[in-house]
Amino acid sequence: MSDRRPTFSFLMTAYRTEAYLPATIESVLAQTDPDWQLVVVDNGNSDDIAEIVTSYRDDRIVLVRQENKGYAGGVHAASENATGHFVCVLDSDDQLLPTFCERVGRVLREDSKVDVVGIDAHRFYDDGPNLPMGYLRSIGVRSRPDPRRRLTKMDALAGFIPYYTAAIRREAWDAVGGYDHPPEVDESVVIWLRLVQKFDVRILPDRLARYRLRMDSLSRDASKVESFDDRVESAFESEPVETTKEREAVEATLRTARYLRSIRQARSALLLGETEMAREAATRAFALKRTVRAASILAMVRVSPGLLRRVHPIKQRVTAAFTHVVQRVMRTKGE
Fold it and tell me: Residues 234, 184: contact at Cβ < 8 Å?
């Protein structure tokens, strides 16, 4: 391998994703700009994972094997073995579009002061086509990102947490601690809250990745979804605020998160036939935000919960917000 440092190092931790890993690796190999390195951490010493990675005879692909140290531990191990000027977290069941390195690299070359370049992403179910709504829109970002404008702390506190795959200057990654954060907060939120305060962060409106929505996640333990919600809320709650506007932005973001959480809990309770739990969750949602959506669910729960179950088939119940939360729990965190 050449001693020259690549522009990009992709940090990938793989755990029980044998079915998806080949497509992810091949999406990196398909980059129109070949100036990259891929560090794959076999986060659990899986012979199948190792065999998949080593089958690609490319010196730019590095395999690291270790006992399962959780998702953040896998990313940290990848970063320790990465040599690129910019690091990019890439989960082992997601994909890149071929022009990711080319488009992101162009921004970095045009302005050497830029430290981080984020993107939008397509969403898709397993081997299905891209969904009409992209990632940023699915989390509530309404305006089109302007790459000429620096992302601010207020933006992040107000809920603009970019897609997790981004090119982060190595010095910036190290300065904010990468994904090495306390377990009670979500690392993918904390890193953005810290990056925007110290570094020049830009977001491209282009959808340059594919974010997999795995239907098998619906069968996972609901307590893990709740734990993820807790970590996201803790990430915002633990972030120091300096002004009244910042505090109000955090409060609004948390109110929205808790509202969506209550909506999800109401619907999940209905699926399980827990009418009283559904009523309590719907009441919380309506207290947080007096929306037509919350009012409708509350009214139906009070009048005829059985009817609500019938008029909301499973595919309709999986809303964008619910899907986003579940998928983050399923990011191969080794839990």
Answer: yes
For residue 286, how many C-alpha atoms fall within 13 Å in the half-sphere facing its CB?
17
Tokens (6 digits) for 269: 């309770």
Alpha-carbon span 116 to 119, nearest angstrom: 10
Enter the pTM of the model. 0.87
User: Under 8 Å CB-to-CB from 202, ≥6 apart: which residues?
Assistant: 107, 114, 116, 117, 118, 147, 148, 149, 150, 151
Specify if 334 maps to a domain.
no
Residue-number span of the structural domain to which 306 is assigned: 217-329
Other residues' Cβ atoms within 10 Å of the Cβ of residue 201: 24
> Same domain, yes or no, for 224 and 209?
no
- Residue 267: phi, psi to the nearest 5? -70, -40
Asked if residue 1 belongs to a domain, the reply is no
Question: pLDDT tens string for the chain (335 positions)?
Answer: 457 899 999 999 999 999 999 999 999 999 999 999 999 999 999 999 999 999 999 999 999 999 999 999 999 999 999 999 999 999 999 999 999 999 999 999 999 999 999 999 999 998 789 999 999 999 889 899 999 999 999 999 999 999 999 999 999 999 999 999 888 999 999 999 999 999 999 999 999 999 998 765 544 567 788 898 999 999 999 999 999 999 999 999 999 999 999 999 988 888 788 889 989 999 999 999 999 888 888 887 777 655 555 545 433 433 444 444 444 444 444 44
Domain count for the chain = 2
